Amino acid sequence: MVLLSPFEGSFEEIRYIANELDELIGAPNTVVVFGIWAHFGSFPIEVYIRRLQRIRSAVVRLLDRAPKTVIIIRTANPKALWLYETNQQRLVLGAEVVTVSAGAGQYHEESSFKGRTCFTIFLLLLTAFLIFFQICCICLTYLRKLLSVSQPFKFQPKMSSTIIYPKATTEAPKVRSICNFPPLSPKDALEERLLLESVAWPETPALPSPLSLELTSDPAHSSFTILPARGGGQWHVGDQLEVSIIISDFKGQPKKSGGDFLFARLHNLTLGAGVAGKVVDHLNGSYSAVFPLLWEGAAQVEVTLVHPSEAITVLNRLTSEQPDSLFRSGSRSETTTCNICLRQTKQPICDFTDPRTGDPWFCYKPKNMSCDARIAHSSVGYKQTLKAKEDELFQGRVNLKVCIPASGPAGVTVLPKRKVESSIVNFQASGYYYQGLWRALDGTKVRQFTCASSITQCLKGKVVHLYGDSTIRQWFEFLNAALPDYENKIMVTFRLHGPPLRFWLMKKFVTLPMN
């Protein structure tokens, strides 16, 4: 395959993923891969839900006109080594976990306003199922039953992030801004409400002024305890392991409220085995983590404080109150602010809402140019939006992705499966790792591609369209490096997300057979 020069699209060529899917013909030799919404920015969650709904509808339309098109949706990581490697070895990325962090503040975007004749570039964006690099060409066939709008919507529990119990309010924060989301159908509105309820977070405590770190969640003073097996006795494959977690502040006092972002995993480094646990927030400073026991031998528990509840308060504020982006260009340009929602001011607004998908995008009109002069868009870094001392809530090795110690043994020994099946275990994990390989719990067979020849055989004669973030870009780069032959008529395209949320200038990469 030959790597062509990056394609830079003009303003007229800007596309959303749903629009691009509507332009695909589709065929048995066409493969469409999605790995989207990995980098969360400061936008309301409804933005992501509605965009995914539109992408799903476009996929259904594609399957209507070309039923044999292969659709691959990447929702888990077949090589998430963090599940079974040590804390020092692993990257906290992978299947079924969304790690939200504030970094230095808000991410920004910028766009150019130039004369109409100076068309150059535009774009691009972000996305979210967290994915890690490893080419696993899982040739899933037709997902129409899962994607069809005629089917009831099914929710996959998030095993790796804190699950709220009891259910908390999902009322969206009120922001005085200009937003023009198109109305939803009753079915889509119901789905959105159910999705919002499924990710609802409990109300976190308001931050005092001045902020005192001593009264916030401290992983070093917190602890977890493995509870005895139900009915006593030993642990067996097929049983359920339960862990109690107590969160305390820097003074060692137990917290009285919930809302901390915890992650729990069960792993065995020697076996290359690991599974994420379900975390339940009891809203009083205590939590439970539940794991299925899926392999024989040692199983080590690890609980991580990803963010204290006080940091969640800050993140909620950043998401709901500060979703601004900056746009600018070269010497003949003006800088202005753009976003899905803009605060109401006396400044005129340019409306760049997509006419086909209804995706909203607004910019404050530049003082000396018309709205039609906007042609380019790129990201420029982070805007500092943290208040005084709030950065103390995001300290590595202090309260950001720090392991919580065990108050007793941190692991158990698992014996072979009992002859009589347990009737009380209800596994909600989608799968686990064993010997470094992903195993699905729903019976789905995951084919492993361990060499370039097997990948080539799978993709021979195929046109592969990749849509996603930098991880899917690594798929593209891997394919280009691993399949150097020119005889298999493999075409691969890569599109980095869809406008206009964030990331660098839009580039469309294409690989083509030499002939």
Automatic annotation (TrEMBL):
GO terms for biological process: nervous system development. Keywords: Membrane, Transmembrane, Transmembrane helix. The chain crosses the membrane at residues 31-49, 121-143. Residues 10-82, 438-486 form the NXPE C-terminal domain. SUPFAM superfamilies: E set domains. Belongs to the NXPE family. This is NXPE C-terminal domain-containing protein. It comes from Dissostichus mawsoni (Antarctic cod).
